[in-house]
Structures are given as C-alpha cells and as structure tokens.
C-alpha cells in the first residue's frame, strides 16, 4: 500500500497556488491556454504543448502551468477566483489534472476540482490525475489549501502495482504526512470491488504506514477477519522478513500451515529462504532455498528439503514417520563470462519416495508426484589448443523411483579433436585434389560408473561396484564424387578400449536345465582394439508427372535416395585375439574353488561351441564377434501431390501435400556369415495429410522361416525327452512382419493448441527480472510443465486425440505375439462464458482398463478463481478444491480443501 505516490500528487497540486490574478505580485507562474487537441485525459503520451521557462521568482517555481477548458473559463477578479468549466485540464511538467470543473480561490488559497451531476442524476467528469508514468488516479473531488498545506481527496480510485485503492478520504498534512480513513485495498479493478482489505484509519509517511483496525470485506460485507492495528514499513529495496503461512486442510494430514518461514538478504547477489509445512497429524516439511546472481557472470539456485510424513491412523504401520530428503541445484554461466569455458549444473536427487510421500512438498504437482526418474548433471567444458580440442567432464546421476535403483557416473570425461585435413594446408590454393580431401579425427571417452540399489550405495562394498574404462576412436575418411551424380565415401574406423577389470565365467552343469553361470571378476589391465573398413555410395532419383485432367490434382512427385555400402571386419572372437573364451562346463558346486572343469562345453543346436566376451560387462563393451564382409542398402522415399490451392483467387495457385515423408527400407547382407546372411529388413516413415492429422510408423520384416528344432532335456537318462523349441532357420521365405509401431494425434480445434503453446512459451520466457518474484516464476514454471493447467476462456471447446499401436511377433506364432494399443484423449469446453470443464483420460486395450483420468472445473469469478480437480481412480486417486485471488500480489489469499492420494481412511 504505497501511499507515497499520493504525497507526490498532492505536492504537485501545490503548484496551482499562484494561479491567475495579477494582485498576487509575488507569483511568477502564469496560465496559458493549451489547444483543444488534448481531448483524451487518460492518454497524454502524444500531447504537444509548448512550455516557456520563466525566471525564478519569490515563489520558487520557474515553469509555466498550462490550462484548458472545453466550455469556458471565467475569472472573478473581485473575489480572486478562476473557474474552468467543461473538460477542464491543467498541466504542469509531468503532472496532469482533468475534471469537469476546476476552481481556484486565491483569497482563501483553496484549489478545488470535482465532477458534476447531469439531469438524470449521474455523476460524471470526476477529477483524473496523472504524474509521469505513475499511472492514472480518479477521485470524486479534490480540495487543497495552498497556505496551510492541508487538503482532502475524497472517493479515490487508483492502481498501485497490481492493487487498487478505492473510496474513503485522504487528508493531506503540511509535513507530507497523510491521514486516510474508510479506504479499501483490493486487486479487483471494479469501482465497487468484490472484496478488499478495509482500512478504517491510518497514517502514511515516507517510510511507513500505521493503521488502526483493518478487516477483510466481501461484497462490502465485513468479515470476522482483521487486525486491531498494523504497521507496514515501506523500504525502497528488498529486505529480510517473515513469510506468513497459508492455512489449509488435508483429509489425511489434518489442518495445515504451509509455506511459512523467513526470508533473508545475505548480500546484493545472494538471498535465502527458510520455509516449512506443519500438519496436525504430526507431519512436517522443512525447506531451505537460496538464489544467487552475478550479472553477466553466473546465476543459479540451491534447494534442500527434509520431510517427516505420517499418512495413517495412530497405531497403524503407516503412522510411523517416513523420512525423506531432496536436493535441487541449478547453475548457469553467462556465455561471455569466460569465453571457451563453460560450467553448468542441474541436480535433482534425493530419496525415491520424496515427491510421492510429501505430495511434491504439498504442492500436489502431479507431474512431480508421478515422475519415474530423477536425474542430475554437473558439467564442465573447455576449448583449448586454438580451438583444436574440446574437453568436457561431467558428473551425473539417475534414479528409478519405483525400483529404487540408482546409477552414478563419477565422472564422464570426453576429449574431442576437430577433424584434420593433413594433406590440405592453410596455404593451399585452388581446387582440392582427391587425396587432399582425406580427413582424420580423434575422440576419447572415459567413465567411472556404478548401478546399484539406493540402500546398497553407501555400504562397505559400494566402491567395489564401480566400473571404469577408456575408449579411443580414430575415424579416417576420404569422400569423392564420380560421374557428377554419384557420391562416394571410403573410411577406416579404429576403436580401442582400456579396462582395469575383466570377467571369467564358469558354467555349472545342471542336469534339469540350462547351466548356472557364475561370474568372477579378474583385476588387471586389458586392452581391446577393433577396426572396420567401409565404403559407401549415394545418389538421388527424381520422378515427376503433371496432370491436366485430374481435377484439383495438378502433379505428382517422387524422390528416391538409394544408399549402398560395403564394410569389412575380421572375427574378433577368434582365439588369436584373446578377447573371447569358450563357455566351458564345470561341476555343479557353488563353493569357492570347489567346482572343476569337466572338459565339456556349452553348444548351440548345431553342435557349435558358444563363446563369451571377457569385456561383456565393460562400460564400453568389447569387440564384436563374427567376421563381417557385408553390403548394406537402403532406399528413402518422399512422395508429394500438387493440388490447386483453394485460397488462391486467380485459379493458378498450387500447394504441395506430403503423402509419404521419409519412407525408408534398409537391410544388409553378410557374405562371410556361416548362416542367416541377410539381416532383417527395417522400414519407417511418416505422413502429414493436414494440419490436424499426421502419423508415424515403423517396423521390421524377417526373411527367414521358423521351424521346431526341439531341445533335448535329461539327455542320456531314462527321462530324456524333446521339448518343442521354435526358432528362425537359414531358409528364405516371403518376408513376414515381426514388429510394427504406429502413432497418430489429432486436434479438432487447432486454435486451442496454438493458444496453449503460446501460453507455455510466454511463461518460459518470464524471469524474475521481468517484474515477477522468484516464487511467482517458480509457480508459473510449474504450470508450464503441465499445459492443461492453462484455462483459456476465449477458446470455447477443444478435443484432442492420440493413439499408439505396437505389434511384436519375432517368430510369427501365437505364443510369441504381443500387441499393445492405447487411446488417449483430452479436452475442455465452456458450459457458460464463465464455467469451463477440462478432462484427460484414455484406454489401454491390452490391459482392458481406463488409463490415468482426471477432471477439472473452473469458475471465473472476475477477481477470484474457483477450481476443483478430481482423479476418480487409480494410484493417484484424489480431489482438491481451491478458491484464490487472481492477482499475484495476493497470491497467498486462498482457501484449499484436499483429499490426498495417499489417504488410507
């Protein structure tokens, strides 16, 4: 409630004290009529008035006051009174005053402005005042004594940074002190606001406001909510202070006070906020948040949270407190702060049940509550060697909240060298020769990672579970063109891995089934190198056809892009390299050192020994098995129709309709493979027929037949038998579909999608520096994660559908077939111009069940919002009802009623 600006306004009315009559010899201020073009008292940004500087006189004022009256100006020299009638206007510097009637009494030193009442009893022409960019204020009347410095402003209506002061009387005192009575503060912009804080009386000075009784009123009806007195400091900058909690009620946790605490300014670049939630059932949450910003350097925030939650009745297992914590940290560096060096952080870590147990710190954000993973990354990057090398190092973490597993990478290092052309120097001139196009690159990756359960991460063997290694890659390529239309590329790729641990497998005999595998870790440095030679060719083929007698269809275009490649790689599973070992059988004894070799080996159905890689558990894997001399081929297709444009009035306009985009078929043939030389044929593509409808598809085809080869069980015993076992065999047949995926989405009202996307973009672009507090920005960013949170009453209805279909049958048999298809739909519609209903649901055809479903109802109450949301069934079954003020300045003025999804009774 910044009444300081009222002081400035009244101070400028003092400038009118030297109006109009020559009897006041000490005055050096004169009125000058201004032209009629200033007809709009609110918008004065385009006024063009001439101001003439006057010599400073005894009055201390050196500028000219301008005046204008649409009807007439009357000066009563005898009584020293000047009257301005009909849209009267007075301007002094950046101060402007408009009223239907303005009067100055020089004998009594009183300036007065008011509106008038017409024949129908309507009061119009109220005084309108404005100073610079401070906004416009309206009053019923203004009276000021220029000699005593006292005055009255009655029936004021003025906006102050998102709020409005309405009614009452303001008395101006000589010492720039203001006494107010009967004034209402509200965020409702109506002359008769729906609600407000009624200030019965108060005193405003430059630095603080002191009031008597203050109470809340609704529709001008006093409510039993108020304070006998209040003190409001008016600092000119951010300051430390208490944060009032928000009362609420939860069906399980009881009554609550949420988001209460203390805010502290630590420095010009750093602040902190300690908040908490407390519930009557004994649950509580503690949060520490801090923000830091060094302009043009860096900025970020850190949040630490701890909670103790009870969700059951006393005496039940759920009543035992559940302890959880969470850490969040974001940091970004200005690109110009340290050119060539970057540092960033995005940390989202903690116990897996924090968000679900605490209902996302009592925010009930379903996107946070239902998230399945938590992930973090802290990254550092540097470019050096005149831009030749790029080094990045990162620490990362990932958690799966359902399985409570965690993956840590401490660290991940990457060193990349820019591609070199060793035979084409900086001083080379002319067109490149074929050998000068040779390029060489280099990259290094190093990693140290562990995958384990949360409860095992910090036990005594936790460090032993880390896996680490290095990987070097050197690509060499030589591109060239042949016959102008054929593009060739020949390359050699060398890859080498370094490890400090390998494995040794023991396959223990199992008479009733497959062998039991026991893996032993072998410490010691091992390297594994492999290389691949390849060459490829690509071109484009165009087919176009024009039609003259096919109605609106004017043409057809088909662009094909064939690609062929040949690659060679030796068999790195050969014993010469030492990278692979035979799967040797041992006696069935799990005791350390007790199982011994039997001299037998695990074999496939053709009697061939199976092998395993000693690097198979390495983080970068190991060299691949099997010799390869294969040819690869793919064909990409794009098909378009040209049709007459309905929007073109000349009859000659055309537009393109994409029928098929990126339809690609690909496969390969390995000449040196023992069997199954032809790889599966994969395909994929997309189509976008209209702005509303498009779909994507992909799949694979197998060219091999499926036969029952049988599996021998209990061989050599009286119980020997053959179980049916189907698999693909090396026998060609017509390709059969082994997998297909299909997805599409459709919006019946594209205007709704455009509006929602625009709202999301606008929120993303908002920053605290743009005029919002950090808390407001955080809440808006939470909304931006859920586009359904936007309620646009300008869009009367919207229905959107999305459908996905997945089919898999690798062996073409009923028992190996899996099908899943899901239909999702969401939308909203206006019951009335002020009521809107939103819904989100779907159906899983495989589970034969309705998927996550929610309903929401919104009521626009002008300056208030009423909303109710309901999840009728499922894991997050709950409801909530909220009524709150729209304006962000009173964002904590709300009432909530909730039933949490964790409710047990």
Automatic annotation (TrEMBL):
GO terms for cellular component: cell outer membrane; transporter complex. InterPro entries: LptD (IPR050218), LptD_2 (IPR045659). Keywords: Signal. Pfam families: LptD_2. Residues 1-25 form the signal peptide. Residues 209-704 form the LPS-assembly protein LptD central domain. This is LPS-assembly protein LptD.
């Amino acid at each position: 409630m910044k009444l300081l600006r009222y002081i400035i306004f009244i101070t400028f009315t003092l400038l009118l004290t030297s109006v109009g009559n020559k009897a006041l010899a000490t005055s050096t201020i004169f009125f000058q009529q201004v032209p009629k073009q200033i007809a709009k008292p609110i918008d004065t940004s385009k006024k063009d008035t001439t101001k003439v500087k006057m010599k400073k006189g005894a009055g201390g004022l050196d500028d000219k006051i301008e005046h204008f009256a649409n009807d007439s100006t009357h000066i009563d020299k005898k009584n020293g009174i000047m009257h301005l009638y009909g849209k009267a206007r007075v301007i002094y510097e950046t101060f402007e005053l408009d009223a239907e009637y303005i009067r100055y009494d020089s004998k009594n030193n009183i300036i007065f402005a008011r509106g008038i009442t017409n024949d129908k009893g309507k009061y119009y022409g109220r005084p309108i005042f404005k100073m610079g960019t401070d906004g416009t204020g309206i009053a019923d009347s203004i009276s000021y004594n220029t000699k005593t410095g006292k005055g009255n402003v009655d029936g004021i209506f003025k906006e102050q940074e998102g709020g409005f002061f309405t009614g009452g009387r303001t008395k101006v005192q000589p010492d720039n002190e203001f006494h107010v009575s009967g004034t209402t503060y509200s965020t409702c912009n109506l002359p008769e606001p729906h609600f407000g804080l009624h200030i019965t009386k108060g005193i405003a000075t430059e630095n603080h406001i002191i009031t008597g009784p203050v109470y809340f009123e609704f529709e001008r009806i006093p409510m039993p909510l108020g304070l006998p007195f209040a003190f409001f400091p008016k600092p000119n900058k951010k300051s430390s202070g208490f944060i009032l909690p928000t009362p609420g009620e939860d069906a399980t946790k009881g009554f609550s006070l949420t988001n209460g605490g203390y805010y502290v300014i630590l420095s010009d670049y750093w602040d902190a906020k300690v908040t908490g939630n407390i519930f009557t059932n004994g649950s509580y949450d503690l949060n520490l948040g801090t923000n830091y910003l060094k302009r043009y350097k860096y900025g970020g925030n850190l949040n630490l949270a701890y909670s103790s939650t009870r969700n059951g009745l006393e005496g039940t297992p759920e009543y035992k407190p559940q302890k959880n914590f969470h850490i969040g940290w974001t940091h970004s560096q200005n690109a110009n702060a340290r050119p060539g060096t970057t540092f960033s952080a995005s940390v989202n870590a903690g116990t897996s049940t924090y968000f679900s147990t605490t209902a996302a710190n009592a925010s009930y954000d379903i996107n946070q509550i239902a998230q399945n993973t938590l992930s973090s990354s802290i990254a550092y990057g540097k470019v050096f060697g005149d831009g030749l090398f790029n080094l990045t190092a990162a620490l990362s973490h990932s958690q799966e909240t359902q399985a409570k597993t965690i993956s840590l990478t401490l660290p991940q290092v990457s060193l990349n060298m820019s591609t070199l052309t060793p035979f084409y120097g900086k001083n080379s001139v002319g067109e490149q020769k074929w050998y000068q196009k040779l390029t060489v690159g280099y990259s290094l990756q190093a990693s140290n990672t562990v995958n384990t359960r949360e409860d095992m991460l910090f036990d005594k063997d936790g460090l032993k579970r880390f896996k680490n290694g290095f990987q070097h890659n050197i690509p060499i390529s030589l591109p060239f063109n042949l016959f102008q239309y054929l593009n060739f590329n020949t390359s050699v790729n060398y890859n080498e891995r370094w490890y400090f641990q390998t494995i040794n497998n023991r396959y223990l005999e199992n008479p009733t089934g497959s062998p039991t595998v026991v893996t032993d870790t072998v410490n010691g440095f091992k390297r594994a190198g492999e290389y691949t030679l390849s060459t490829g060719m690509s071109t484009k083929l165009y087919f176009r056809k024009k039609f003259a007698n096919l109605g609106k269809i004017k043409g057809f275009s088909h662009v094909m892009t064939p690609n062929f490649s040949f690659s060679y790689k030796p068999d790195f599973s050969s014993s010469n390299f030492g990278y692979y070992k035979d799967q040797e059988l041992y006696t069935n004894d799990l005791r350390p050192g007790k199982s011994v070799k039997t001299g037998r080996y695990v074999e496939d159905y053709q009697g061939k020994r199976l092998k395993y890689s000693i690097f198979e558990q390495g983080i970068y894997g190991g060299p691949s098995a099997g010799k390869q001399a294969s040819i690869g081929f793919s064909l990409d297709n794009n098909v378009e129709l040209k049709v007459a444009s309905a929007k073109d009035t000349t009859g000659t306009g055309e537009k393109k309709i994409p029928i098929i985009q990126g339809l690609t078929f690909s496969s390969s043939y390995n000449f040196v493979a023992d069997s199954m030389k032809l790889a599966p044929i994969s395909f994929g593509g997309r189509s976008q027929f209209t702005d509303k409808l498009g779909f994507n598809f992909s799949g694979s085809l197998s060219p091999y037949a499926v036969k029952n080869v049988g599996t021998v069980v209990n061989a050599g015993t009286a119980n020997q038998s053959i179980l049916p076992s189907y698999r693909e065999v090396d026998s060609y047949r017509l390709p059969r579909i082994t997998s297909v995926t299909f997805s599409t989405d459709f919006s019946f009202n594209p205007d709704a999608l455009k509006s929602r996307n625009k709202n999301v973009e606008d929120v993303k672009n908002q920053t605290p520096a743009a005029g919002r507090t950090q808390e407001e920005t955080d809440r808006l960013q939470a909304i931006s994660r859920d586009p359904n949170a936007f309620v646009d009453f300008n869009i009367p209805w919207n229905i959107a559908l999305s459908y996905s279909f997945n089919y898999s049958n690798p062996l073409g048999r009923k028992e190996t077939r899996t099908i899943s298809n899901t239909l999702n739909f969401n939308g909203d519609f206006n019951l009335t111009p002020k009521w809107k209903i939103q819904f989100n649901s779907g159906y899983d055809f495989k589970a034969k069940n309705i998927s996550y479903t929610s309903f929401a109802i919104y009521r626009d109450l002008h300056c208030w919002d009423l909303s109710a949301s309901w999840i009728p069934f499922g894991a997050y079954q709950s409801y909530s009802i909220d009524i709150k003020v729209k304006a962000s300045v009173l964002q904590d003025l709300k009432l909530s009623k909730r039933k949490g999804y964790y409710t047990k009774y």
